[in-house]
Amino acid sequence: xxxRQPRDLFPGALEMxxxxxxxxxxxxxxxxxxxxxxxxxDLLQIEEGSLYPALQxxxxxxxxxxxxxxxxxxxxxxxYKLTPAGAKQLERQVSSFEQMxxxxxxxxxxxxx
Amino acid sequence: MNxxxxxxxxxxxxxxxxxxxAEHLNEKIDDLVAGxxxxxxxxxxxxxxxxxxxxLEEHGREVWQWPAIESFFADIRFALRMLRKSPRFTAVAVxxxxxxxxxxxxxxxxxxxxxxxxxxxxxxxRIVFPxxxxxxxxxxxxxxxxxxxxxxxxxxxxxxxxxxxxxxxSDSFDLTRSGEPVRVDGLxxxxxxxxxxxxxxxxxxxxxxxxxxxGNEHEVVLGDALWRQRFGADPGILGRAIDLxxxxxTVIGVMPRGFAFPRxxxxxxxxxxxxQVQLWVPLALDRRSTVIPNESDELAVIGRLKPGxxxxxxxxxxxxxxxxxxxxxxxxxxxxxxxxxxLARQAAGDTRQPLLLILAAVGVVLLxxxxxxxxxxxxxxxxxxxxxxxxxxxxxxxxRLIRQLLTESLSWRASVx
Lengths: 113, 417
Known about the structure:
heterodimer; A: alpha+beta; 4 helices; B: six-stranded mixed beta barrel; 13 helices; 15% strand
């Protein structure tokens, strides 16, 4: 017990990063995890496994599609691909996230004397 | 995709999930080994960074499910297995609860039928019986005492609280001129009787005020049972003449099925009403307001309160009128007390107190049964500590465990019913 508190940032953050990652190219789960880890310079401590529930949620919302294929290292993997609906969703989420971030930043900015 | 097809396709969608996750782990382990880690260490690292596989897989599946419902069914299946595995515990608990619940259900349905079911009259809460009480301190052997003719006439003239006030009196009649002569139980009722009850006949009409006068009282309203048995449910019965005690009466109405007011067992003992009233004729009281010597009217009174008037207000009204009557009569002191009884209380009669008592007793029995079962459960939960610890270790949250235990309790409570 006690391992339920999410290690990702806020609800939806992981999904947003997955969508952004898939916007470049279709990838399988491990590659998505690697990409997020590399591009964030290991700043984000994400439980890799939590990728899969997030991917299932995206599948259900038809933001991504999945198909079995063979990876570059010759493994049988499921490759996820962004759908147009997913791209639109990403745009919406990013803009609302930026707005939120902007707001938080302003509040947190040091008070000018 | 609509939800029906999703329901059937979700197994296909998430069958790959565990394979996919396992493959992820393998790929990561291989990567780490290629980076110079020992395989054992790589496996540990990969697993740590991946998280709780079982739990994550479950979360992945839950995306497609109605998780609450499905885990509920899983819990029920588990609970039933537990029940089968401990038959003695099950038998004791189920029997205890069955007795408690069975008894309280039986008694409650009785209470419901007698005390709670609405009476079959419109606005039945406004129907009251202003019973006359015997003089205080005088033991007549009766709780109530009939009203006289002049008293009733006084009330119906003076009362402010009642919309309608009717007097009635039991009688029986020889019914002739329509087949075999037969003796039927009937009721003499004043014009206010039917309006007080608020029941309309299923055929024809009831008495008018005009017909409720001496010499005019030659109309009769038939009960449904009598109409069917003696007159073959003839719809053309209205206007037909029948003889009651040798006098001609015209049929003006037929009451609806089931209407047989008043029933003897709902009325005070001093009145001798028939178990089933078959017909109603006008009471036709003499309207003179003087007492006729040797008069022996023994009247019961029913009233319908005006809208908004409470039983207490009606009681106050009756008390005032009783005082006025006392002051008019010699030796009238204390003879005109009344008790305004609502119909619901009247109909429940003497059964009310004992019924409530039994209900309380059965409630206590149910409580005892519950506490017995609770202590049984407590004992058993001590033995299940291990199981619960394992479940928690495997990633079940506190709420999930509580839900499982609750579902278990519910499922064998259901097996009691």
